[in-house]
Amino acid sequence: MGDDKTAAHIALLAPVPLDILVSALETYTPAGQIAFGTRDWELFDKLDKSRMKMPVDVYIYASHAGGSFEGKATWHAKYVRLEPDRHEAKPYRPMLAAQTDVWEGEVYWIVERLRRTEASEHISVTDFISFEDTKPYGKSFPPHRPLLVKHPL
User: What is the pLDDT of residues 74-104, one digit of tens each?
Assistant: First the structure.
């Protein structure tokens, strides 16, 4: 996916452990694409039906041990596809994640152009709006899994 166009109406807000994100930047993968695992195949099925075959902006907040996070999306990527086959996804896994994979029933969401964002690009997770709502999540919102959100920009 060489151009910068993404779906304008939908985005993905997702947690990824910080050590996996750092490992992803250090791992050589085909076409620079990275696969992150999830059991939330229904969410990605809905995303794939809503995105009109376009890449989708992914806003990633780094999670830490014990489920803590700093409250801001500080990483960005473009979602390009879902890979249900573990063996097909393996070449795209961050080195650290590939060493620790133990889940069964997992699917893999493939992104490209993963990067840390500049401080001016950070977005508070409380400012995101659910894809099916009209109000921001708000201060009490503790995200723990990937979510479909309205595109914030």
Answer: 999 999 999 998 889 889 999 888 777 666 6
Residue of 127, 139, 5 lying closest to 59 (CA atoms): 127
How many domains does the chain fold into?
1
> pTM, whole model, 2 decimals?
0.89
Which range marks the domain in which residue 121 is found?
27-149
In a domain, 134, yes or no: yes
Instruction: Specify the amino acid at residue 34.
Output: I
- Write down the H helix ranges in 15-93: 18-26, 41-50, 86-89
Residue 17 lies in a domain: no
At residue 19, the 3 state secondary structure works out as helix
